[in-house]
Amino acid sequence: MRVGKQRVQRLMQRHGIRARGKRRFRVMTTDSRHDQPIAPNLLNRNFTMAAPNQTWTGDLTYIPTDEGWLFLAVVVDLFSRKVVGWSMRPDMHRSLVIDAVEMGPFQRRPAKGEQIFHSDRGSQYANHDFRQVLDKHGIAPSMSRKGNCWDTR
């Protein structure tokens, strides 16, 4: 039996039937349920900087490819809005964010002790190895408030 789309739509509406759409796959990039130390929010929504290399901010995202998902960590200078570091991996291992933040001092050579790195409360940014990298370069860690996406613009 051949029927048109409008007839199927009308019959479905008459009988209260709704089509189920395909569920969208969503990857979580922030795991803030951990027992690692949380840095204070030093940035406090002040996203305007007077000079380069004062404050860098970082975040993770994911990119679908033919081979699967790739995770991208990016570090941005808030003064120039330029990417100063990045890293890409097939997993969200802590080395993803470590490699991205290590690229910044290598390229920019900022003065030690005068810089902030701001991020969300994800476990990648709160772990001990990442903190050691920040300490090595004299960068003060800063984290946004819990569940507040406006703190990491």
Topology:
Layout: H1 5-14, E1 55-65, E2 68-77, E3 83-89, H2 94-108, E4 115-119, H3 123-126, H4 128-136, E5 139-143
Parallel strand pairs: 1-4, 4-5
Antiparallel strand pairs: 1-2, 2-3
Helix pairs in contact: 2-4
What is the percentage of strand-forming residues? 15-25%
> What is the correct CATH architecture of the domain at 55-152?
2-Layer Sandwich
Main β-sheet description = 5 strands, mixed
Which regions are unreliable across 5 or more consecutive residues at pLDDT < 50?
none
The CA-CA distance between the termini, in Å, is: 56 Å
What's the CATH topology name of the domain at 55-152? Answer: Nucleotidyltransferase, domain 5
Any idea what the radius of gyration is? 22 Å
What can you tell me about this protein's structure?
With 153 residues, the protein is an alpha/beta fold. The protein has a domain at 55-152: Nucleotidyltransferase, domain 5 (2-Layer Sandwich). It contains 4 helices and 5 strands, in the order αβββαβααβ. The chain has helices spanning 5-14, 94-108, 123-126, 128-136, and strands at residues 55-65, 68-77, 83-89, 115-119, 139-143. A 5-stranded mixed beta sheet has the order 3-2-1-4-5. A hairpin with a 5-residue loop joins strand 2 and strand 3. Helix 2 (94-108) runs parallel beside helix 4. The N and C termini lie far apart (56 Å). The model has no long low-confidence stretch (mean pLDDT 82).
